[in-house]
Task: structure prediction
Amino acid sequence: MTSLYETVGGAPFFERLVDRFYEGVVGDEVLLRLYQEPDDLISARRQLTLFLIQYWGGPTTYSDERGHPRLRQRHFPFAIGEREKDHWLAHMQVAIDEISPNDEIRTQLSEYVANAATHLVNQPPSA
Result:
């Protein structure tokens, strides 16, 4: 069975996806306040790219460098509520819609990021 990583042509697809995602993030104050270095997102871009590459069947560079992804644990220090999740998903969905070569890949990516984003919410709904 061919991995999504192979189907989309490898790392360049995920690099373009993450670059497009961060084009939205750089102008989003809701998300920028979550980054330790909002003026320098190079490390964050690299980590997300490597994570997605590994998740979708590519090289394990992310785990080799950082250990098990433990996404919820790694994101726990940041206050992520529904608003942050919605902003993140909106930018990621734009990237997916623009970069995905077909509906099947678009659907797979969209479903995964929606589930992952929901999993990372760690703040109760605001009253």
